[in-house]
Design a protein that fits this description.
Distance between the termini: 25 Å
Strand order of the largest sheet: 3-2-1-4-5
Mean pLDDT: 93
Strand content: 5-15%
Number of helices: 7
CATH class of one domain: Alpha Beta
CATH topology of one domain: Rossmann fold
Low-confidence stretches: none
CATH superfamily of one domain: 5'-nuclease
CATH architecture of one domain: 3-Layer(aba) Sandwich
Shape: globular
Order of helices and strands: EHHEHHEHHEHE
Helix content: 40-55%
Number of strands: 5
Length: 124
């Protein structure tokens, strides 16, 4: 696994958007990857303002957004079955696994995947 690449969960970007300076420092000089699910989750809030949407789009433009492909589908099915994850979490986790990139999340429910995923749990 490469030290300069990092797959980022939706909650991490939310903390970053809220101004978490620790995350900003940690993510600096990293090649950030996110799932298309994260893009949809961030931009899909009903009450999002035009300014918030622009801010989110600017952040996402600095990330590589990973779309669905067959290998990710297969891994998502397996992780959903094996770990009983919600479908969006399964797709996000499968994307990180498929790319073989360390995954950072604040979701403690994913902690049980630590050995499988090269998981980094962030505690704000």
């Amino acid at each position: 696994m490469s030290g300069s690449r990092l797959f980022v969960d939706t909650n991490i970007l939310i903390y970053l958007l809220k101004g978490d300076s620790t995350l900003e420092t940690f993510l600096q000089d990293k090649h950030i990857y996110v799932s298309f699910i994260t893009e949809m989750e961030l931009l899909g809030f009903a009450s999002i303002t035009p300014q918030e949407e622009a801010h989110i789009k600017k952040l996402l433009s600095q990330c590589a957004v990973v779309d669905m492909e067959q290998g990710i589908k297969e891994l998502a099915i397996a992780t959903r079955k094996n770990y009983k994850l919600k479908l969006p979490d399964s797709i996000i986790v499968a994307s990180a696994l498929f790319l073989d990139i360390p995954f950072i999340t604040a979701d403690k429910g994913l902690q049980r995947l630590e050995e499988t995923l090269g998981l980094i749990i962030y505690e704000p």
